[in-house]
Design a protein that fits this description.
Blueprint: E1 3-7, E2 27-29, E3 36-38, E4 44-49, E5 53-59, E6 62-67, E7 72-78, E8 83-90, E9 101-106, E10 112-117, E11 122-127, H1 128-133, E12 141-144, E13 152-159, E14 162-167, E15 175-179, E16 185-188, H2 209-213, E17 216-220, E18 226-231, E19 236-241, E20 244-250, E21 259-263, E22 268-272, E23 280-285, E24 289-294, E25 304-311, E26 316-334, E27 337-344, E28 349-354
Parallel strand pairs: 2-20, 3-26
Antiparallel strand pairs: 1-21, 4-28, 5-6, 6-7, 7-8, 9-10, 10-11, 11-12, 13-14, 14-15, 15-16, 17-18, 18-19, 19-20, 21-22, 23-24, 24-25, 25-26, 26-27, 27-28
Pfam families: TolB_like
Organism: Chitinophaga niastensis
Protein name: TolB-like protein
Amino acid sequence: MSFFTGMLLFACNNDKPDADAAFTNITTNVTFSSFSVKNDIPIKKMGPQLGDVLDMQVMDSFLIVSTLRDSAVLQIIHIPSGTVAGHLISRGKGDNECLNIATILPTSDKNICWCYDITLGKFLKINVPKALSAAAYIPEKTFMLTPATKGAKSPSWINDSTFAACSYFMNDCRYFYFNSQDSGIRKAGQLPSPGKGWPDENPKGKFSLLATAYSANMKKHPTDDLFAVAYNVTGRMELYEGGKLKRLIKGPESFQPIYTFKYDGESNIPVQNSKTLFSNVQLKVTEKHIYLLYSGRNEFQTCGQKILVFDWQGNPLSMVNLNADYCSFTVEEKGNQSLIYLINKDTGELVSTSI
């Protein structure tokens, strides 16, 4: 087994042309000074201490929370009272069980969400009010990823048979549309150029070196064919419309992925190290805005102390300084007010604020 040393990447180039050169006219560079700064915002404790949280989503008067270690994979929080209203879906590998819900997918129905188990490659459709009143709830629908769609990351709901997601296996697109019945796949966008000195792409059927190195979170606009793609270990966000890149945003800090490449005998795996800088920890969207939980730190700091707010044209609006580490969040907009729910990294407490 051999190892490639990690290297600091100052520019995205190899022996191939920089893919970003074709998008100069739609590229925007932002810095922290591009945002209107909001400091000293009030933080309110809501009551439950939830520990390690993978994802959160507001649904009507409930907060749906995916936890990492509880016996049930979902906790349902009643927002007005701040109390736990119920626990859903046993943790396991059975037909109606899950191991880790990495993504909670809202739908056009405020009572219904889909949940994605990234470990099992499994999707479940959940009717929350029905589940809370059932003695033993069985999901409305389930389906598994196929060999053609394996490695999906950060999926979005389009309708009950059509989804879109990033991929750990596909190096020829940024994201792809797929059908729950595997009736076809449509690819969209492209990945950035490999960094200088990176190993060659892995053989087909293995994790894509490029897709894994440029991992990202993606969310679909609630009603339109718009997607926001926020990168995890480089300062970059892309906005797509109709499957085509319409805006490339770089910043607010300029850094490229920093990895040690580990060879396992068949393929090279990008491995995060103590110098890896994290950018966008989590991404949430509403009809009007895009919200990023931002880190900008290394030493495995997959948490953030800032929320960056953009509109869907890619214009930087607000930067919310939280003054503590938060590992997960979600947003609900009511009128001109944004209600933000967060999980404190150190205490596991659920808190809220508004801007």
